[in-house]
Amino acid sequence: MSAAMDTESTYSGYSHYSGHSKKAHRQGRDRHKSPRSKDGSRSEKSVTIQTPPAEPLLGNDASRAEEGQDDNWGETTTAITGTSEHSISQEDIARISKDLEDSVGLDCKRYLGLTVAAVLGLLVFLTPIAFILLPQILWRDDLEPCGTVCEGLFISVAFKLLILLIGTWALFFRQPKADLPRVFVFRALLLVLIFLFVFSYWLFYGVRILDSKDTNYQGIVQYAVSLVDALLFIHYLAIVLLELRQLQPMFTVKVVRSTDGESRYYSLGHLSIQRAALVVLENYYRDFTVYNPALLTASKSRAAKHMAGLKVYNVDGPGNNVSGQSRAMIAAAARRRDSSHNELYYEEADHERRVRKRRARLVVAVEEAFTHIKRLQAEEQQKAPGETMDPREAAQAIFPSMARALQKYLRTTRQQQYHSMESILQHLSFCITNNMTPKAFLERYLNPGPTLQYDKDRWFSKQWTLVSEEAVTSGLQDGTVFVLKCLDFSLVVNVKKIPFIKLSEEFIDPKSHKFVLRLQSETSV
Questions:
Q1: Which of 110, 186, 272, 373 could lock 241 by a disulfide, CB 3.0 to 4.6 Å apart?
Q2: CA–CA distance, 219 with 231 (Å, rounded to integer)
Q3: How crowded is residue 245: how many other Cβ atoms within 10 Å of its Cβ?
Q4: Residue 87 carries which DSSP code?
Q5: In Å, what is the CA distance from 90 to each residue of 2, 3, 85, 97, 233?
Q6: pLDDT of residue 312
Q7: What pLDDT is attached to residue 48?
Q8: Whether the predicted model's global pTM rises above the 0.70 cut
Q9: Cβ atoms within 10 Å of 463's Cβ, excluding its own
Q10: What pLDDT was estimated at residue 263?
């Protein structure tokens, strides 16, 4: 048995409360108390986790208030509240704890892989130098003189090692973008190939040169040069496998968000499922609009409102309680189905009307505020340097004039949880610093942007789980389907192969473009 855990987070700001706000507060308090009175047994077995309140839209930060808020701040703002509730079962908590343990294992695996790669890379770069120096140290007097040829080979080895070092740094020593569930197959194969290659060179060097103490020093140096040349070719092979192979588009993937159905299409090359999932997530944070669960509660609240108006009476006794209520409610819902589309139409029309109205008020308020900033800038040029304002102070000075309209618009469009007071002030000061127009300032709030536009604390998706019927290290195939899950929603990815296109050519003789103009002497009357 799993117990539900309700998580509530409330975003509020400065306001002067009227009688209407106090009444709304009492209604909200009674509404939060009502579930406990309805089902006392459930409330005794449930555990409520209260999350710390996030930073409010019009925050009460004391330092910011003392620095930039004027005396009329409380009179130009209104309260914004929003509530988000999530139910988490005990199985979900166990899964989250398991994911945390797995993440610790992933960190160990990642550092272990980096350590092995670093040790192997150090061995690769020191091996040619050791091949050249060991004969000079062990049997220097018995070596045959080499002269200019060996000096030229020394220069060649030095520059080739430098090129190999730069190429290795550019290809391998990059900050990882994600922790993948499985190893990268091609990179592991390259590491194994390099290890076997260097081991075979050391084995041949120990048997044919160290044991016999070969006196042909020029041949030993050429042996080291051949090793460096082979390492350069392995580096070229790594570039082809890790970078060039995936550039040619071979598949088209459709990514659909499970909650609201928003979808995008991307073209991918030859990739494994886990690397394709990584590419999809990178594009998701850039292309998909931010996930807003508040927009998904309209249909649920509408259905709950319809069912709340139904009263079911049980006349057959307590034995038929469940089935009788279910049949009655289904029948009543079917009778009201014909009128529900009219209610949906008028609700959406009324919502669009309110959004357009508050948007117009917001645009006017922001334009007036920016006009005031321009007038201040013209006046500041004649003032003393000590009386000038920096962009932060200017933003704090004009923000109260637009705060009320901005709050109401964000509350109507249900975006208030993504924009705190501090983030709005930072964006406003940024626009003032770069001499941006009011339309540029409003672009972030009028149209929901991608996830990367908002702070990481506002994201609903940080840790993902890859679900696939095929092995995640296998390559993409036509018809492959995998799912990327997070706590609140999932991304369903469907892979389709780009069809083979047969393009033919048809030649048109330029001399064939000749026409005759036919004139008719008779005309219709």
A1: 186
A2: 19
A3: 13
A4: B
A5: 5, 6, 16, 11, 54
A6: 52
A7: 32
A8: no
A9: 12
A10: 93
- Complete DSSP assignment for 199-236: HHHHHHHIIIIITTT---HHHHHHHHHHHHHHHHHHHH
Which 3 state secondary structure label does DSSP give 266? strand
Give me the helix-helix angle, 391-412 and 337-380, nearest 10°.
Answer: 170
Instruction: Provide φ and ψ at 491, rounded to 5°.
Output: -110, 120
CA nearest to 227, candidates 202, 251, 190:
202
- Tokens 């496998």 locate to 241
Q: How far apart are CA 263 and CA 284, in angstroms?
A: 10
Separation of alpha carbons 186 and 454, rounded Å: 35
pLDDT at 105 over 70: no
Confidence of residue 337 (pLDDT cuts 50, 70, 90): low
Give the pair of three-digit tokens for residue 151. 């000096």
| Largest Cα span, the chain | 120
For the chain, what are the domain ranges? 99-246, 251-292+460-497
Strand pairing partners for 252? 267, 496
| Token digits of residue 91 | 């199985």
